[in-house]
Design goal:
single chain; two-stranded antiparallel ribbon; three-stranded antiparallel beta sheet; 2 domains; 35% helix; 127 residues; alpha+beta; 2 helices
Length: 127
């Protein structure tokens, strides 16, 4: 009861406190909305990412390397990089990484830079 009595006798202080709390509430709402927008933007970027998958098959007569995009965003291929013994090297195609063999390489994609894969499981045979 003492608080009610004090507030009714000090109108100006009560109005000032109400204005301060109103401003603090508005500031808190602004901070929360900015954090929400930042979180939504981050989510949108991550949700549209490609998810690459490389599958390899070693058959009796042939080898197959397949690149799939299991994500929901398009995947743009820039280069083929391999890290061996702590050193990363980049070449234009997967066949450039293959050793010399007695059989010719057929049915493969050369110069992968700039090519794209559509989302949701699209695949490209690399060799």
């Amino acid at each position: 009861m003492w608080l009610w009595t004090w507030l009714t006798t000090n109108h100006e202080v009560a109005n000032a406190l109400a204005a301060i709390f109103s401003a603090l509430t508005a500031l808190f709402a602004l901070v929360v909305s900015i954090a929400g927008l930042w979180s939504q933007r981050r989510h949108d970027i991550l949700a549209a990412r490609p998810i690459p998958e490389v599958t390899v098959a070693d058959y009796e007569n042939s080898l197959r390397i397949k690149l799939r995009n299991n994500g929901v965003g398009p995947m743009i291929l820039k280069s083929v990089s391999v890290k061996r013994r702590g050193v990363q090297e980049t070449r234009d195609s997967v066949v450039d990484w293959m050793p010399e063999i007695s059989r010719p390489w057929t049915n493969f994609s050369t110069a992968l830079a700039g090519r794209s894969l559509a989302p949701n499981g699209a695949c490209r045979y690399l060799s």
